[in-house]
Amino acid sequence: MSGIDYSGLMPLETALAHLLALAESAPIVEAERVALADADGRVLAEPLIAGLDLPPWANSAMDGYVLCLADWSGEPLVVSQRILAGTAPEALQSGTCARIFTGAPLPAGADTVEMQEHVEVGEDGRVRFSEPLRLGQNVRPQGQETRVGDSVLPAGTRLGPIEMGLAASLGAAELLVRRRPRVAVLSTGDELIEPGQSLGPGQIYNSNRSLLIAWLRRLGCAVVDGGILADDLELTRTALAALSDVDLILSTGGVSVGEADFLGEALREEGELTFWKLAIKPGKPLTCGHFRGVPVIGLPGNPASSLVTFGLLARPYLLRRLGVQRVEPLGFQVPAGFAWSKPGKRREYLRARLEGGRVVPYPNQSSGVLRSAAWAEGLAELLEGQTLEEGDSLRFIPLSEILG
Ligand code: AMP
Ligand code: MG
């Protein structure tokens, strides 16, 4: 025996590279202006250019007293004005200092602030500085963060609370963002019914629809709920044909090897079908292609498989269509709190937690067990052919990296 045979299974990287290339060939370029408050989760369509310096003028970083250091003789100084944040000071009278508060503009002619804790105010009202002063101390110079004309955020930036705060600091009331991708979610399976109905024999509740719709909305997509699709070729064709105006049809189920694959058949007949057996677990079967030109990604039906393939493949695909460059989740190396003696042909994404700084997998890693992912804080990556002793390190991808 000479090692492990990976033939016939596609490495995750290869599948991702294919999907990202497809995404780049079908970018969603239309843009719309949205109010800053509505920009969370959206993608910038143009760089954010600073229209002003930040800070716009030199200001005090402390509550204290401001003076012109070169003019100071070392004697106690008279306080000639009081400068509050939000006011416009007079120029500093020579031979004096001014009371100043955090965020207040420096008066013309002043350059140095001493914090009030290091100052004594005598009975005569004059200010004595008890510590040596350094030119420019406790001053936030004009433009120290940003200069007019700087590109502060590039096009393709995904906006979140921090970027929205930054845009606000530059006075942006609206932002130009890519339009929301329209994504249809189809859950295939004769066995599926929706919560609210009572279970008949052989039926299960549809998990993937709720999982994917909520997730897509977090990603800034406009979701078209395609509901449950029975395992039937004619119904599959009809359902796909009705979705001619979406940017992506995302289906789950019906792609297992050996099963009558109606999605695949419909794509083969009226579009294009690629079927991949991925070298990952969970999540081996994945369909991708198009139906009459509308891109389709068919995720495996088991909920944990849908989660992993959506998070590691479909999510990066969607973000790249919006022009986002960094679409892959960050992971970091963490010591294993378990041993793994069986090398696998497929890379495993264990639903796992960090306990005492070590990765601990959920005991039941079956791809049908969504509870594993609800318990988990991340995906622990076991590489193809890898074995582990306790304490060896492996990559841990926090779920928070892929869920938003
Ligand atoms: P399939 O890929 O259709 O063979 O489905 C694989 C497994 O996932 C089967 O056990 C299905 O019952 C289950 N499954 C498929 N779709 C869903 C869904 N939307 N919600 C929960 N389980 C599903
Ligand atoms: Mg099925």
UniProtKB/TrEMBL annotation:
Gene3D superfamilies: MoaB/Mog-like domain, MoeA, C-terminal, domain IV, Molybdopterin biosynthesis moea protein, domain 2, Molybdopterin biosynthesis moea protein, domain 3. GO terms for molecular function: metal ion binding; molybdopterin molybdotransferase activity. Keywords: Magnesium, Metal-binding, Molybdenum, Molybdenum cofactor biosynthesis, Transferase. Catalyzes the insertion of molybdate into adenylated molybdopterin with the concomitant release of AMP. It catalyses: adenylyl-molybdopterin + molybdate = Mo-molybdopterin + AMP + H(+). It holds the Pfam family MoeA_C. The lineage of its organism: Bacteria, Pseudomonadati, Pseudomonadota, Gammaproteobacteria, Pseudomonadales. This is Molybdopterin molybdenumtransferase. Its cofactor is Mg(2+). Residues 184-320 form the MoaB/Mog domain. Coiled coil: none annotated. GO terms for cellular component: cytosol. Its EC number is 2.10.1.1. GO terms for biological process: Mo-molybdopterin cofactor biosynthetic process. It is an enzyme of class 2 (transferase).
